Amino acid sequence: MKLYGLNDMVRTDCRDCQGCSTCCRGMGDTILVDPYDTYRMEKGIAKSFEELLDNYVELHVEDGLLLPNLRMEDEKNACVFLLEEGRCSIHRDRPGLCRAFPLGRNYEDGQLHYFLLEDCPMENKTKVKVEKWLGTPDPKTYQEFLIDWHYFVKDLKNRAAVMAAAPENQKLKEMNLLFLQTFYIRPYDRKRDFYEQYRERREEFCSVLTDCF
Predict the structure, then answer these.
(1) In terms of pTM, does the model score above 0.85?
(2) Could you tell me which residues are beta bridge partners of residue 178?
(3) Of the residues 11, 39, 95, 188, which has the fewest C-beta atoms closer than 10 A?
(4) DSSP structural state of residue 25
């Protein structure tokens, strides 16, 4: 499997997809949204995270941890943001996994690289720089956030597995509620840098986790 960094060129440009939308259908609960994703979505469609939960985002349990993902419409088995003409209604503010496609993320040894997925049916793609393809402001800081979030969630899943094995898993429920409240439900200050607020919340969460769990 060939891996790519932010400065590498890779064949991902499918000429604006031409309305194919294959990658927006039948994804189940696999399109996870991290705090930066919901931060951008909330701003883009002027809805709070709790309002997103009403129609656009759902929660599922993954290795004991409660995580949010984009919702698929039951009848069409397509993303709720997909328009009839096969276009994304929140394209400018779409989640990071959607931005990266047809690239997948590979985390190894504390680093993040990308690899080409085989799910995209579009032919004759042209080369584009990975950093440009992701289309996210301050890509290096974003990359650092993704790495930190990935290993942070991985650690929480390990903790959740231990808690779930206990006869009484009330602490697991409390941890999940604290997790959602800290990183998703409580609004972020849009006048301040997101990443700075994320680091503060991470430190706050870990402090409570250490003291209470």
Answers:
(1) yes
(2) none
(3) 11
(4) B
